[in-house]
Write a structure and sequence with these properties.
Helix content is 38%, strand content 12%. It is α+β, with helices and mostly antiparallel strands.
Length: 448
């Protein structure tokens, strides 16, 4: 499950298992004695005592039984900063994973995570077993230093009872329809404050890491860079259309009123989530919310659908933003063979991926596992399997600055929606310059 932090934070994790074969030695008296099992460690981002970590440990225990020559120690609550520090110290864990696929550019370009290409070739594993988006965000400039291990995509959650009460018969397919529905679904208290919000488009509200702005780019057909890698947000009409749609709906609510409404809501990853409590009629969220609702509010009447798209691009309906957990081997690892066996199992074993998907309700990340009969399917979760398979679904550019450029876009979005940016096109041109300067500076950076 992908956890989101504040926009400036980077959520990181490490997931891994190592397989080894117990070897026997024969004494001079022909008695056989098993050698000591190889102990390996994986670092993951799931916090201690969480359901996700419990599920992973259970599956790792299953793996241990299959490979008695290896003992796997699972350590949760690990962030990328700690992984980098361990690599620098020369004492890294055997396998690491991260929730932030946007950091692949940094990991691959600096050599912090080793190139898995030769190991894949040796094991006869083709990147084609993964969907194209996942193939893309696990490499940088031809170096594949990571593999996907489950994935996330984002769709629309909507309250069926509130839809019925408002006379809305189907989910919106375009952003103009979303705006109209959001206004119908919004109710106010006697003092004029917001009671139920139809849809909250604010960039810094819930799910803002990776920045929420990235969720919308595929829906507006908006590209980030040109063929030379230069930022083109000001030139791409989809970005201006997105920002104007966002500001228009926020202005309908009133920026101050929306801020007060948000301040009174429960935390995103809690049973007090605003959608789960009926305070939001619609919400963009990842597939994991299905499991949260089942565990926290099983009687909630709701449905899922693809996010609506730009009115100018109806052909994009059904697509969405894709991201995912990545897994790799840090440089300086002491048990490389066991580490690779572990990574290979976690990233490519259909049984493991199907069971892990069932346990935490993330999208399975190989083509085979997404079609596995072991996958538990229901009408809510199936929406996200379809989004993941849609040819128009996309992810964000992988760069040497990791998510740094996304943070710049997020910062601009927050100022824009609050009314602090008066010239949208001029602001986007300045944003392009900031991003290009950031990318140029990254080329001068050193290795961890």
């Amino acid at each position: 499950m992908i956890r989101r932090l504040a926009a400036a934070a980077v959520v990181l994790a490490a997931l891994g298992l190592v397989a080894g074969v117990a070897r026997a030695v024969t004494s001079s008296s022909s008695e056989k004695k098993a050698t000591k099992a190889t102990k390996i460690t994986i670092w993951v981002g799931f916090l201690p005592s969480t359901h996700e970590l419990k599920v992973l440990k259970g599956l790792i225990a299953e793996y241990d039984k299959k490979t008695p020559g290896v003992e796997v120690d699972v350590v949760g609550g690990i962030r990328d900063a700690k992984i980098i520090a361990a690599i620098r110290s020369g004492n890294p864990p055997d396998v690491v994973s991260s929730f932030a696929s946007s950091n692949v550019g940094t990991f691959c370009s600096t050599g912090a995570w080793i190139d898995l290409g030769p190991l894949m070739k040796q094991s006869h594993i083709s990147p084609s077993i993964f969907p194209k988006a996942s193939q893309y965000y696990t490499q940088y400039n031809g170096v594949r230093c990571a593999l996907p291990m489950l994935a996330d995509d984002f769709g629309l959650y909507y309250n069926s009872d509130l839809f019925k009460k408002a006379g809305i018969t189907r989910p919106p397919h375009t952003f103009s329809e979303l705006t109209a529905d959001a206004k119908k679904l919004t109710t106010k208290n006697a003092d004029g404050s917001l009671k139920v919000v139809g849809y909250d488009p604010a960039s810094a509200f819930y799910d803002d890491q990776p920045p929420k702005i990235t969720f919308y780019a595929p829906l507006f057909g908006a590209k980030y860079t040109d063929a030379q890698g230069h930022s083109i947000l000001a030139k791409e009409p989809g970005w201006a259309r997105y920002f104007r749609w966002q500001k228009g709906l926020i202005d309908y609510y009133g920026w101050d009123k929306l801020q007060r409404f948000q301040s009174g809501l429960g935390q995103e990853f809690s049973a007090s989530n605003a959608f789960e409590t009926g305070q939001l009629a619609m919400m963009v969220d990842g597939e994991w919310r299905v499991a949260f609702i089942q565990n926290e509010h099983p009687n909630l009447s709701y449905a899922t659908a693809p996010m609506p798209v730009d009115d100018a691009h109806p052909e994009l309906y059904g697509a969405g933003y894709i991201n995912g957990t990545i897994i790799g081997i840090p440089k300086g690892v002491k048990h490389k063979d066991e580490a690779w066996a572990l990574v290979k199992y976690l990233a490519t074993n259909t049984h493991f991926l199907a069971q892990f998907s069932n346990g935490i309700r993330n999208v399975p990340s190989t083509i085979a596992s997404s079609k596995s009969p072991e996958i538990k399917r229901d009408k809510h979760f199936s929406t996200f399997l379809k989004i993941f398979a849609n040819k128009h679904s996309a992810t964000t550019p992988i760069t040497a600055v990791g998510a740094g450029y996304q943070d710049l876009i997020q910062s601009f979005a927050v100022k824009w929606q609050a009314g602090d940016v008066k010239d949208l096109v001029g602001g986007l041109k300045n944003l392009d310059k900031q991003i290009d300067d950031q990318l140029a500076q990254a080329k001068k950076g050193g290795k961890p």
